[in-house]
Amino acid sequence: MTTPHPRAFVVGHPIAHSRSPLIHGHWLAEHGLAGTYERIDIHPDAFPAFVRSLREVGFVGGNVTIPHKEAAFRLAQVLTPRAERIGAVNTLWFEDGRLHGDNTDAPGFLAHLDASLGAGWPEATGVADGRAALVLGAGGAARAILVGLLERGLDRLIVANRSAERAESLTALDPARITAVPWTAVPSLLPETGLLINTTALGMAGQDALALDLAPLPGAAAVADIVYVPLETPLLAAARARALPVVDGLGMLLHQAVPGFSLWFGRTPDVTPALRARIVADLGSHG
User: Key word Metal-binding present in the record (predicted)?
Assistant: First the structure.
Protein backbone atom coordinates (compact mmCIF):
# COMPACT_ATOMS: atom_id res chain seq x y z
CA MET A 1 0.00 0.00 0.00
CA THR A 2 1.45 3.36 -1.02
CA THR A 3 1.70 6.24 1.42
CA PRO A 4 -0.52 9.15 0.34
CA HIS A 5 1.31 12.31 -0.67
CA PRO A 6 1.16 15.18 1.85
CA ARG A 7 -1.69 17.61 1.10
CA ALA A 8 -1.58 21.20 2.33
CA PHE A 9 -3.75 24.24 1.57
CA VAL A 10 -4.33 27.95 1.83
CA VAL A 11 -7.82 28.93 2.97
CA GLY A 12 -9.45 32.34 2.79
CA HIS A 13 -12.51 34.20 1.52
CA PRO A 14 -11.88 35.37 -1.18
CA ILE A 15 -8.77 33.38 -2.10
CA ALA A 16 -8.32 33.59 -5.90
CA HIS A 17 -5.65 36.31 -5.52
CA SER A 18 -3.38 34.22 -3.27
CA ARG A 19 0.17 33.66 -4.52
CA SER A 20 0.80 30.97 -1.89
CA PRO A 21 0.09 28.05 -4.30
CA LEU A 22 2.72 29.47 -6.66
CA ILE A 23 5.28 29.75 -3.83
CA HIS A 24 4.73 26.26 -2.44
CA GLY A 25 4.38 24.74 -5.91
CA HIS A 26 7.78 26.22 -6.81
CA TRP A 27 9.38 24.65 -3.73
CA LEU A 28 7.72 21.25 -4.29
CA ALA A 29 9.15 21.19 -7.82
CA GLU A 30 12.54 22.54 -6.72
CA HIS A 31 12.93 19.78 -4.11
CA GLY A 32 11.37 17.07 -6.26
CA LEU A 33 8.75 16.34 -3.60
CA ALA A 34 5.46 14.56 -4.13
CA GLY A 35 2.78 16.68 -2.49
CA THR A 36 0.03 19.17 -3.21
CA TYR A 37 -0.86 22.65 -2.01
CA GLU A 38 -4.44 23.69 -2.72
CA ARG A 39 -6.33 26.98 -2.76
CA ILE A 40 -9.65 26.72 -0.88
CA ASP A 41 -12.38 29.36 -0.58
CA ILE A 42 -14.41 28.89 2.62
CA HIS A 43 -17.12 31.23 3.91
CA PRO A 44 -16.55 32.26 7.56
CA ASP A 45 -19.72 30.41 8.62
CA ALA A 46 -18.27 27.14 7.30
CA PHE A 47 -14.72 27.61 8.59
CA PRO A 48 -15.04 25.78 11.95
CA ALA A 49 -16.45 22.67 10.22
CA PHE A 50 -13.65 22.88 7.63
CA VAL A 51 -10.99 22.92 10.36
CA ARG A 52 -12.58 20.01 12.21
CA SER A 53 -12.52 17.94 8.99
CA LEU A 54 -8.86 18.54 8.09
CA ARG A 55 -7.42 15.25 9.30
CA GLU A 56 -10.38 13.25 8.04
CA VAL A 57 -9.99 14.55 4.47
CA GLY A 58 -6.24 13.98 4.49
CA PHE A 59 -4.64 17.39 5.02
CA VAL A 60 -1.35 17.62 6.94
CA GLY A 61 -1.92 21.34 7.55
CA GLY A 62 -2.13 24.62 5.73
CA ASN A 63 -2.09 28.39 5.65
CA VAL A 64 -4.91 30.61 6.85
CA THR A 65 -5.51 34.08 5.45
CA ILE A 66 -8.14 36.83 5.70
CA PRO A 67 -10.73 36.67 7.21
CA HIS A 68 -10.03 33.42 9.12
CA LYS A 69 -6.85 34.10 11.15
CA GLU A 70 -8.62 34.93 14.42
CA ALA A 71 -11.00 31.97 14.03
CA ALA A 72 -8.02 29.67 13.43
CA PHE A 73 -6.49 31.04 16.63
CA ARG A 74 -9.61 29.95 18.54
CA LEU A 75 -9.81 26.53 16.86
CA ALA A 76 -6.19 25.37 17.13
CA GLN A 77 -5.65 22.94 20.00
CA VAL A 78 -2.05 24.01 20.70
CA LEU A 79 -0.69 27.51 20.11
CA THR A 80 2.89 28.77 19.96
CA PRO A 81 3.74 31.56 22.42
CA ARG A 82 4.05 33.90 19.42
CA ALA A 83 0.55 33.05 18.19
CA GLU A 84 -0.75 33.60 21.72
CA ARG A 85 0.70 37.13 21.73
CA ILE A 86 -0.52 38.01 18.25
CA GLY A 87 -4.00 36.53 18.71
CA ALA A 88 -4.10 35.20 15.15
CA VAL A 89 -2.91 32.06 13.35
CA ASN A 90 -1.75 31.77 9.75
CA THR A 91 -0.14 28.31 9.84
CA LEU A 92 -1.72 25.02 10.98
CA TRP A 93 -0.20 21.55 11.27
CA PHE A 94 -0.76 18.27 13.08
CA GLU A 95 1.71 17.13 15.71
CA ASP A 96 1.21 14.32 18.23
CA GLY A 97 -2.37 13.97 17.04
CA ARG A 98 -3.29 17.57 17.82
CA LEU A 99 -3.81 20.64 15.62
CA HIS A 100 -1.11 23.23 16.25
CA GLY A 101 -1.21 26.90 15.25
CA ASP A 102 1.51 29.52 14.74
CA ASN A 103 1.79 32.99 13.25
CA THR A 104 4.74 33.15 10.87
CA ASP A 105 4.17 36.76 9.77
CA ALA A 106 6.42 37.98 12.59
CA PRO A 107 9.49 35.86 11.77
CA GLY A 108 8.72 36.28 8.05
CA PHE A 109 8.97 40.05 8.32
CA LEU A 110 12.17 39.85 10.40
CA ALA A 111 13.77 37.36 7.99
CA HIS A 112 13.01 39.75 5.13
CA LEU A 113 14.55 42.67 7.05
CA ASP A 114 17.68 40.58 7.60
CA ALA A 115 17.82 39.56 3.93
CA SER A 116 17.23 43.10 2.65
CA LEU A 117 19.29 45.15 5.11
CA GLY A 118 21.81 42.64 6.49
CA ALA A 119 21.74 41.09 9.96
CA GLY A 120 23.33 44.20 11.51
CA TRP A 121 20.43 46.49 10.59
CA PRO A 122 19.50 47.38 14.22
CA GLU A 123 22.96 48.93 14.65
CA ALA A 124 23.14 50.37 11.12
CA THR A 125 19.77 52.13 11.39
CA GLY A 126 20.28 53.29 14.97
CA VAL A 127 17.31 51.40 16.44
CA ALA A 128 19.75 49.45 18.63
CA ASP A 129 20.89 52.76 20.16
CA GLY A 130 17.68 54.61 20.93
CA ARG A 131 16.15 55.53 17.59
CA ALA A 132 12.55 54.43 17.17
CA ALA A 133 10.97 51.82 14.97
CA LEU A 134 7.84 53.67 13.85
CA VAL A 135 4.95 51.45 12.72
CA LEU A 136 2.15 53.05 10.70
CA GLY A 137 -1.18 51.26 11.12
CA ALA A 138 -2.65 49.12 13.88
CA GLY A 139 -4.21 46.10 12.17
CA GLY A 140 -3.23 42.44 12.28
CA ALA A 141 -0.03 42.93 10.28
CA ALA A 142 1.12 45.72 12.60
CA ARG A 143 0.50 43.50 15.61
CA ALA A 144 2.52 40.63 14.13
CA ILE A 145 5.38 42.95 13.15
CA LEU A 146 5.47 44.52 16.61
CA VAL A 147 5.74 41.06 18.17
CA GLY A 148 8.60 40.25 15.80
CA LEU A 149 10.42 43.47 16.70
CA LEU A 150 9.91 42.77 20.41
CA GLU A 151 11.33 39.26 19.92
CA ARG A 152 14.35 40.82 18.21
CA GLY A 153 14.94 42.93 21.31
CA LEU A 154 14.07 46.44 20.10
CA ASP A 155 13.35 48.75 23.01
CA ARG A 156 11.60 51.72 21.39
CA LEU A 157 8.57 50.97 19.27
CA ILE A 158 6.00 53.60 18.28
CA VAL A 159 2.60 52.93 16.68
CA ALA A 160 0.66 55.60 14.81
CA ASN A 161 -2.84 55.05 13.51
CA ARG A 162 -5.78 57.22 12.45
CA SER A 163 -7.86 55.44 15.09
CA ALA A 164 -5.98 56.26 18.30
CA GLU A 165 -7.90 53.59 20.20
CA ARG A 166 -6.60 50.79 17.95
CA ALA A 167 -3.03 52.05 18.27
CA GLU A 168 -3.41 52.28 22.03
CA SER A 169 -4.60 48.66 22.21
CA LEU A 170 -1.28 47.46 20.75
CA THR A 171 0.74 48.98 23.59
CA ALA A 172 -0.58 46.15 25.79
CA LEU A 173 1.89 43.83 24.03
CA ASP A 174 4.67 45.53 26.03
CA PRO A 175 3.73 48.86 27.64
CA ALA A 176 7.35 49.56 28.58
CA ARG A 177 8.54 49.38 24.97
CA ILE A 178 5.55 50.36 22.80
CA THR A 179 4.05 53.86 22.66
CA ALA A 180 0.95 54.91 20.73
CA VAL A 181 0.81 58.35 19.09
CA PRO A 182 -1.77 60.22 16.98
CA TRP A 183 -1.35 60.03 13.19
CA THR A 184 -0.67 63.77 13.15
CA ALA A 185 2.45 63.24 15.28
CA VAL A 186 4.24 61.17 12.61
CA PRO A 187 6.13 64.04 10.86
CA SER A 188 7.56 65.29 14.17
CA LEU A 189 8.82 61.78 15.02
CA LEU A 190 10.74 61.17 11.79
CA PRO A 191 14.03 62.82 12.92
CA GLU A 192 14.34 60.23 15.71
CA THR A 193 13.19 57.22 13.61
CA GLY A 194 15.62 54.57 12.45
CA LEU A 195 13.08 52.19 10.91
CA LEU A 196 9.79 53.33 9.34
CA ILE A 197 7.26 50.59 8.54
CA ASN A 198 4.00 51.09 6.65
CA THR A 199 1.43 48.39 7.46
CA THR A 200 -1.56 50.35 6.13
CA ALA A 201 -3.16 49.92 2.69
CA LEU A 202 -2.00 53.41 1.70
CA GLY A 203 0.09 53.14 -1.47
CA MET A 204 -1.59 49.92 -2.58
CA ALA A 205 -2.91 49.82 -6.15
CA GLY A 206 -6.28 51.58 -6.13
CA GLN A 207 -5.65 53.29 -2.77
CA ASP A 208 -4.42 56.77 -1.94
CA ALA A 209 -0.66 57.20 -1.62
CA LEU A 210 0.89 57.59 1.81
CA ALA A 211 1.56 61.33 1.83
CA LEU A 212 4.65 61.71 3.99
CA ASP A 213 7.71 63.91 3.50
CA LEU A 214 10.71 61.72 4.33
CA ALA A 215 13.21 64.61 4.40
CA PRO A 216 13.44 64.62 8.23
CA LEU A 217 14.46 60.93 8.42
CA PRO A 218 18.12 60.34 9.42
CA GLY A 219 20.41 59.34 6.56
CA ALA A 220 20.85 55.79 7.92
CA ALA A 221 17.13 55.13 8.43
CA ALA A 222 15.46 52.25 6.58
CA VAL A 223 11.94 52.32 5.13
CA ALA A 224 9.74 49.21 4.84
CA ASP A 225 6.33 48.77 3.24
CA ILE A 226 4.25 45.59 3.50
CA VAL A 227 2.28 46.54 0.35
CA TYR A 228 3.55 44.52 -2.65
CA VAL A 229 1.13 45.61 -5.38
CA PRO A 230 2.78 47.74 -6.64
CA LEU A 231 6.17 46.38 -5.64
CA GLU A 232 7.58 49.90 -5.43
CA THR A 233 5.05 52.03 -3.59
CA PRO A 234 5.23 55.84 -3.60
CA LEU A 235 6.69 55.59 -0.06
CA LEU A 236 9.53 53.32 -1.20
CA ALA A 237 10.13 55.47 -4.29
CA ALA A 238 10.48 58.52 -2.03
CA ALA A 239 12.92 56.61 0.20
CA ARG A 240 15.00 55.54 -2.81
CA ALA A 241 15.09 59.15 -4.00
CA ARG A 242 16.74 59.97 -0.66
CA ALA A 243 19.12 56.99 -1.08
CA LEU A 244 17.66 55.34 2.03
CA PRO A 245 17.69 51.51 2.27
CA VAL A 246 14.25 50.08 1.43
CA VAL A 247 12.40 46.86 2.23
CA ASP A 248 9.53 45.95 -0.10
CA GLY A 249 6.40 43.99 0.82
CA LEU A 250 7.00 40.86 -1.23
CA GLY A 251 9.74 39.37 0.93
CA MET A 252 7.48 39.09 3.98
CA LEU A 253 5.05 36.99 1.91
CA LEU A 254 7.88 34.71 0.74
CA HIS A 255 9.65 34.31 4.09
CA GLN A 256 6.48 33.69 6.12
CA ALA A 257 5.82 30.66 3.91
CA VAL A 258 9.06 28.86 4.86
CA PRO A 259 8.08 27.42 8.30
CA GLY A 260 4.82 25.93 7.03
CA PHE A 261 6.45 24.21 4.06
CA SER A 262 9.05 22.73 6.41
CA LEU A 263 6.35 21.37 8.74
CA TRP A 264 4.15 19.86 6.01
CA PHE A 265 6.69 18.54 3.54
CA GLY A 266 9.78 17.90 5.69
CA ARG A 267 12.22 20.21 3.89
CA THR A 268 13.23 23.76 4.77
CA PRO A 269 13.17 25.74 1.51
CA ASP A 270 15.14 28.85 0.60
CA VAL A 271 13.76 32.17 -0.58
CA THR A 272 15.81 32.45 -3.77
CA PRO A 273 16.06 35.09 -6.52
CA ALA A 274 14.38 32.55 -8.84
CA LEU A 275 11.33 32.28 -6.56
CA ARG A 276 11.12 36.03 -6.18
CA ALA A 277 11.38 36.52 -9.96
CA ARG A 278 8.58 34.02 -10.51
CA ILE A 279 6.21 35.84 -8.13
CA VAL A 280 7.17 39.26 -9.54
CA ALA A 281 6.38 37.97 -13.04
CA ASP A 282 3.00 36.71 -11.83
CA LEU A 283 2.25 40.06 -10.17
CA GLY A 284 3.09 41.79 -13.45
CA SER A 285 0.81 39.53 -15.50
CA HIS A 286 -2.18 39.71 -13.14
CA GLY A 287 -1.80 43.19 -11.63
Answer: no
